[in-house]
């Protein structure tokens, strides 16, 4: 994607989603801000990952639908959709013995025809993705032999190699210590700012979500309770509603983004008041 080209628009209308016998999401509407970073936050089992999986076409809606530039994604071929939208799931797995370079190379599949040979451009894109995520020195290592943090960066490299215009990530900082969490989020911000890639991230850590998001989507019990700029939507009232937590929300002294400070005993206090 060139900086001057318009980023694609991803949206859901009247969405219901879940599993046989259980709807997790009901009648949800959402427009993902094109060319920006959107973080989806909320308590466990509120529907964050369910929403992301429907956006990625991993799960089909029970009602309503997902649109990409106004077209129902169900009408798009798998390859065409994958050329635009990439997904890093929460618990990805790789075949035994697969090397880092082999796994990252799989990100190129949507851009190659059945009989198309591997090109120098493919190699360059894979090398660039591994360099950006710091896994180039691990290229010949088996993915299964890596630490959890290293594996996570390799999966992100594979997603980057896909060259998606929209990148969906479910808990991409899982298994990473704080310094590596910052590295990953800095990388996503750099990708967004330099290439205009739309980034959508499910994240548990509220303060990191507030620091890196252009927009926050706050979910509670399958519905959106707040959506907008972090400074506008991440308030004590929203935290209490979405997380059942009494907290003080103040400006971060370094970034001026919202900083959530739980009140001691706040979870119990909120539960008693509910």
TrEMBL record:
It is a peripheral membrane protein. It comes from the Bacteria. The keyword Electron transport does not apply. GO terms for molecular function: ATP binding; ATP hydrolysis activity. InterPro entries: AAA+_ATPase, ABC_transporter-like_ATP-bd, ABC_transporter-like_CS, P-loop_NTPase, Siderophore_ABC-ATPase. One of its GO terms (cellular component) is plasma membrane. Keywords: ATP-binding, Cell membrane, Ion transport, Iron, Iron transport, Membrane, Nucleotide-binding, Transport. It is found in: Cell membrane. The keyword ATP-binding applies. This is ABC transporter ATP-binding protein.
């Amino acid at each position: 994607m060139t900086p001057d080209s318009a980023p694609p628009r991803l949206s859901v209308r009247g969405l219901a989603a879940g599993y046989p016998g259980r709807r997790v999401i009901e009648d949800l509407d959402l427009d993902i801000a094109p060319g920006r970073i959107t973080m989806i936050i909320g308590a466990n089992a509120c529907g964050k990952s369910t929403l992301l999986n429907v956006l990625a076409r991993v799960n089909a809606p029970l009602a309503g639908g997902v649109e990409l530039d106004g077209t129902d994604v169900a009408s798009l071929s798998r390859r065409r959709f994958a050329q635009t939208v990439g997904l890093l799931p929460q618990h990805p797995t790789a075949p035994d013995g697969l090397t880092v370079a082999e796994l990252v190379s799989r990100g190129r599949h949507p851009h190659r025809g059945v009989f198309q040979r591997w090109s120098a451009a493919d190699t360059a894109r894979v090398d660039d993705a591994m360099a950006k995520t710091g896994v180039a020195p691990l290229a010949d290592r088996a993915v299964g032999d890596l630490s959890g943090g290293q594996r996570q960066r390799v999966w992100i490299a594979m997603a980057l190699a896909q060259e998606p215009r929209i990148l969906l990530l479910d808990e991409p900082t899982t298994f990473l210590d704080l310094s590596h969490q910052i590295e990953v989020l800095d990388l996503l911000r750099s990708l967004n700012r330099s290439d205009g890639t739309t980034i959508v991230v499910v994240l548990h850590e509220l303060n990191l979500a507030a620091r890196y998001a252009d927009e926050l989507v706050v979910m509670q019990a399958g519905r959106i309770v707040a959506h907008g700029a972090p400074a506008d939507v991440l308030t004590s009232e929203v935290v209490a509603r979405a997380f059942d937590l009494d907290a003080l929300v103040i400006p971060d002294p370094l970034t001026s983004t919202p900083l959530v400070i739980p009140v001691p005993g706040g979870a119990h206090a909120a539960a008693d008041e509910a």
